[in-house]
Automatic annotation (TrEMBL):
The record marks 108, 110 as: Important for catalytic activity. This is GDP-L-fucose synthase. Pathway: Nucleotide-sugar biosynthesis; GDP-L-fucose biosynthesis via de novo pathway; GDP-L-fucose from GDP-alpha-D-mannose: step 2/2. It comes from Echinicola arenosa. The keyword Plastid does not apply.
Amino acid sequence: MKKETKIYIAGHRGMVGSAIWRALEAKGYTNLMGKSSKELDLRNQAAVKDFYATEQPEVVIDAAARVGGILANNSYPYQFLMENLQIQNNLIDGAHQSGIGKFIFLGSSCIYPKLAPQPLKEEYLLTSSLEPTNEWYAIAKITGVKACEAIRKQFDKDYISLMPTNLYGPFDNFDLETSHVLPAMIRKFHEAKESGNAAVELWGSGTPMREFLHVEDMADVVVFALENEFQDNLYNVGTGVDLTIKELAELIQQTVGHEGEIIWDSSKPDGTPRKLMDVSKMADAGWKAKIKLADGIKDTYQWFLENIDSFKQVKI
Ligand SMILES: NC(=O)C1=CN([C@@H]2O[C@H](COP(=O)(O)OP(=O)(O)OC[C@H]3O[C@@H](n4cnc5c(N)ncnc54)[C@H](OP(=O)(O)O)[C@@H]3O)[C@@H](O)[C@H]2O)C=CC1
Ligand SMILES: C[C@H]1O[C@H](OP(=O)(O)OP(=O)(O)OC[C@H]2O[C@@H](n3cnc4c(=O)[nH]c(N)nc43)[C@H](O)[C@@H]2O)[C@@H](O)[C@@H](O)C1=O
């Protein structure tokens, strides 16, 4: 890939998109472009078509989506289904119609069936029912995977789909209603420590298992996907290691230095019991995650402390 290739990063202000931007800049790519949702609403098909015609990017990285944790997914099914379908349809079909040869689509590990065998292999897609708390988002993401696969099959273009596990890191969403578990725990333990080690309330039973990938590893795999041609459409991205939500809570509690009680709120959903990625296909292609969870949590907590004021203004 030439360093002056015009690369459009959809969602470049988000946690993942901004990490991809920084990673590409660090590697010397000079022609990056992005638009905020205010400048270009990706749900608007005509606006996206005009954007492609005017800007003519050569490569598209799709990190734009309506994203949220278990409660947001469960509370706003229509937005998670429809906005994601609109955004990705406009981006994928617009890119295809404009003759763009390379497209990287980001999905999520929740596309796999709720009770699929573990670890999750790419071929388990569409083999049984989805997890009800996020089936709306998952159905949109599955449609994106299939759209890229259809373009690859019918038109022989390098459209690929990366399926990340749960992500975390700098610029994550720390809003307690809409965030994922890891940033929520950092904030809850920090605020409880500041209030004299008050008790922390967490959701569900603590028994579900999750796998976490640092966003800088995620950006690194996107750069890898950009710089290499792939033989297939769908690749899992993760560390291949998971832990229970209770173990995650203990790790974050220790990192933050909170010494109070943890209360589990069983009125909140657990979600899928386990979704560990089988990452061997991506490893065979030549990429592996590098950042250990304990190090990534330390780094994210440090970022949280340095940015408390700014993220409160932006996200909450
Ligand atoms: N976070 C996670 O744990 C995981 C994320 N992913 C995937 O990674 C990708 C990025 O997620 P993440 O960075 O966490 O999410 P963020 O919420 O941090 O960022 C999402 C981005 O999408 C943009 N966006 C949303 N709606 C629109 C719209 N209508 N028009 C234009 N832009 C829009 C936002 O733009 P703006 O800021 O300008 O409003 C924002 O920059 C998504 O595809 C997500 O599904 C996959 C697995 C796990
Ligand atoms: C990335 C992924 O993210 C989502 O799936 P999820 O992994 O279930 O999401 P989550 O991170 O919000 O929760 C993980 C686990 O953690 C528990 N939990 C405890 N205490 C808190 C808490 O305070 N906040 C949150 N959010 N969860 C908590 C929670 O009850 C659950 O058991 C989907 O949107 C899906 O679409 C998707 O792609």
